[in-house]
Specification:
This protein has 22 helices and 17 strands. By secondary structure, the protein is an alpha/beta fold. It folds into two domains: 152 residues, 3-Layer(aba) Sandwich (Rossmann fold); 320 residues, TIM Barrel, CATH 3.20.20.70. It is globular and about 60 Å long. It starts with a strand and ends with a helix. The C terminus is likely disordered.
Length: 497
């Protein structure tokens, strides 16, 4: 069968700071193709809706599968699914991904029959089974672990048995030079591990994976890395190098193969301090940038987020990263209850440190613990506003003023790295990239004001809402939160977390 995989359009941060290749869809695409199907992939971060409908009409796929990793993309995918059924009524349409795994029933209801099913959990092994069963009706579909239809759900989602079995089919992705992270342009992505053993209250990674933590083999990672043509690589692990021996072994193998890249990764402050040796090793190998989710500057905020670290640990980790020569990007979560003084304090601190500081807005997502425990009532149920750039909880100051202070703070921090002091370096770098035909970073420099715009963000709340989320229904904890459930490996994975 002909199977078209579709990634939805970019969100706000993807318009500006980064645009990542659809690694999950590439892995699913490889698995579906290995099952004998003809597969294409269309990424609407790069292409337009018109391109999608052209593909639909000319190639005439039998199956269309949408990736729904982000809540904010739900309305777009619902509209595309309904239009697909209008144009091709016999086409089987389904969706899967991280965020939709927590809201499968309500998204199916919104679809009014346009979505034939939703795959909850990991998709590499479920998707080929769904494609095979797509002509056999709900009974066959509901026997597949993780599949939900309007008639009900089947067995609980299962973890894939081996991360090595489904390498990404990167050849499916068109216009690969459009993917970048800042001036790491172009950039590819790779997955060394999957899952997170911590349980931060604002995060849904641990509820999706049941606090499990699995590793790809060194051999598979190195072979995949050898096939990546891009000079820059993002390690997409939720927390890199929890197990230092795994990172060291991969580094040694990459060096033996003579593979040199520039790397960007995400990790935790306590992991960096505990496993400094592996980060030092990767810095020699080409690790230039690191993302640290500091989230809060004080004990109170860290405890509320259940980060299980102290401000001292976070600040010490920044010192270690500086010593290693790794540039750190920091995220701070702004509570909608912040007043003028809190924004002012953040800006003063951020200007006093050399790191790149970015601000997101506290957002209770379905799948997070605070979705069920946050005592403040949501001010909106519009999926499109659940993107950590909009306030969906009550703001202490008037909403328009909250956005003004948020954007003012982000603008000050942006100018710290793109102001006159950095202008010469940025100009030289942009020129070098342009000579190689890479303009993603250059375009980014001029888009901040149009993307992060207080008036635009405030107006977003005034848009008509066609699809409303189902509000949380009481407190849920433990196994009720998990998509896959706990595994026998959970205890080992959470050791030391």
């Amino acid at each position: 069968m002909r199977v078209l995989l579709v990634h939805p359009s970019a969100l706000m941060h993807s318009e500006l700071y980064l645009r990542l290749e659809p690694l999950g869809l590439e892995r699913v695409g490889g698995a579906v193709r290995a099952a004998g199907h003809d597969v294409r992939l269309l990424d609407l971060q790069i292409f337009r809706h018109a391109d999608y409908f052209t593909e639909l009409g000319r190639w005439r796929p039998d199956v269309v599968a949408f990736s729904l990793n982000y809540l904010a993309n739900v309305p777009e995918v619902l509209d595309l699914a309904k239009a697909t059924k209008t144009q091709r009524p016999d086409c089987f349409v389904f969706a899967g991904g991280h965020s939709v795994s927590f809201v499968a029933d309500e998204v199916l209801a919104h679809g009014d029959g346009a979505l034939d099913c939703i795959v909850r959990g990991e998709g590499e092994e479920a998707a080929p089974l769904v494609v095979a069963a797509s002509r056999d009706g709900d009974t066959a579909l509901r026997g597949i672990p993780g599949v939900v239809t309007r008639a009900g759900a089947g067995p609980r989602a299962r973890f894939i048995e081996d991360l090595d079995r489904h390498p990404p089919a990167r050849d499916l992705t068109r216009k690969r030079r459009k993917y970048f992270i800042g001036h790491m342009d172009p950039s590819a992505s790779i997955e060394l591990t999957r899952g997170c053993p911590w349980d931060c209250s604002f995060c849904s990674a641990w509820t999706f994976y049941g606090r499990s933590y699995r590793k790809a083999s060194t051999e598979a990672v190195v072979e995949e890395m050898a096939g990546i043509r891009e000079p820059n690589v993002f390690l997409v692990d939720d927390v890199a190098f929890i197990h230092p021996e795994h990172g060291l072994e991969i580094a040694d193998a990459l060096e033996r193969r003579g593979i040199r890249k520039h790397y960007y990764l995400e990790t935790r402050a306590d992991v960096l301090l505990r496993n400094e040796e592996v980060f030092r090793r990767w810095a020699r190998l080409g690790l230039d940038y690191m993302f640290l989710g500091i989230e809060a500057l004080d004990d109170e905020g860290l405890k509320a987020f259940r980060k299980r670290v102290s401000p001292h640990t976070n600040f010490k980790a920044l010192e270690v990263a500086r010593k290693l020569g790794i540039v750190v990007a920091i995220n701070i979560i702004a509570d909608p209850a912040w007043d003028e003084a809190r924004f002012r304090h953040l800006a003063e601190w951020a200007l006093a440190v050399p790191e790149i500081v970015h601000v997101t807005v506290q957002t209770p997502y379905p799948g997070t613990e605070i979705w069920h425990t946050e005592s403040r009532e949501l001010t909106t149920l519009d999926y499109r506003l659940f993107d950590v750039q909009h306030a969906v909880l009550p703001t202490a100051m008037p909403l328009a003023r909250f956005y003004e202070r948020l954007v003012e703070t982000q603008s000050v921090l942006n100018r710290k790295h793109l102001g006159f002091a950095a202008l010469r370096e940025v100009s030289i770098l942009s020129a070098k990239l342009a000579l190689r035909g890479q303009t993603n970073f250059l375009r980014m420099l001029w888009k901040f004001g149009s993307v992060y715009n207080a008036e635009r963000q405030y107006r977003d709340h005034q848009r008509p809402t066609r699809y409303k989320m189902t509000p949380p229904a009481g407190r849920r904890t433990g196994d009720e939160l998990f998509v896959h459930g706990r595994t026998r490996d959970t205890a080992a994975a959470t050791a030391g977390a």
